[in-house]
Amino acid sequence: MADDSVDAVIAAFLDHLENGGPEPSLDHLTADERTEATELIDLIKDARGIDFYRSRPSLDTVLAGTEFEHQLDPRATVGLSIDAVRTDVVSSLGSASEPIADGAAQNEGIQSNVVVRFGSLRIRIQFRDDITTTAGLSQVDPRTAAGPVFGRFPDTAAVVLVIGDQELSSVAIGPYDVDDFIGAPDGQVHQPRITRPVLSLYDTLRRLVDELAPDLTGDDAIDDHKTVELDDIIRTECATACAAVVAEGKKARTEAKKEAWADFDEAALLASLVKDAASGEPSEADLDARLTPAEEAA
Fold this sequence. Notes:
By secondary structure, this protein is an alpha+beta fold. It has twelve helices and eight strands. A hairpin with a 6-residue loop joins strand 4 (158-162) and strand 5.
């Protein structure tokens, strides 16, 4: 019976906590029952805390005062503006690529904040204050982000999305990155996705111009090629050709071919014709005129 009385009190106390029922009285319990019920009630109170209706504490509250309390601090950010990106743009592309406000896009209501010129390339930079992580940047829909820019300004070489973290993390989108593509090896049509890596703004711009306008000057190349004497090559090849005709003539089965080919010695004529043909000087009629006498003599 003692256990039944204590159980009834505890059930009533739980109903008091969870459903707002009246707090049970302990007056009807014996001394031992009252002691047992009090201990159980105290345990329930300790488990729930002082405030019975308080919500679950936040992770910040739980970690406060521990070595992990700063793990949830928000990442340091910078305000995205032309001044904020200027240093990275100029350092990456040079002083001739000073960023300017994209007034044309803003007047059209298209999201593009900065225009950067590099040679004949026009690159547009889009500030993404709505994205705070590199993971979020890599999951952007290229068609939604850059499609309107390419549609309105088709001379745009690329759109660069940049977020306001300390590295100015960014990713480039090209004109073809906003279209559906056929996957390999499945051969299925897929929605567009980010294909380039997320890098700092400096590295994104540098990698982008290396891709779109590679430097092919080769300043450090050493020109150690020997001069080719074309005349010597032509004379050698024509002499070899004449010797081949003579050899074929000696093996010929017909007497006419043996007689004409065995004594073939027109190396000088062939060399002259090849040299003129290589220079592009003689016309087809001129070549025919020079070959006809040799044909008749043969």
